[in-house]
Amino acid sequence: MDKEHGTHIRRFINGWCPGCEESSSLTPGRLNTDETIEFRTCVDCGETVEDHDPRFWSSAADADKEGLV
Fold it and tell me: Which domain of life is it from (predicted)?
């Protein structure tokens, strides 16, 4: 599955929601055009949250996991 190495992994995360003003569950979302920001949605209030964290890109070890897009 080396062809999946470096691809985006869609996962729910717990992250800060400015609408709720606390950590909430955030859905996987679309990437911006240069694929550096993922736009997630808070499951509690529906606020769109920008996620700038690159940890959701697969490493060689992650390439065998489900959820690759």
Answer: Bacteria
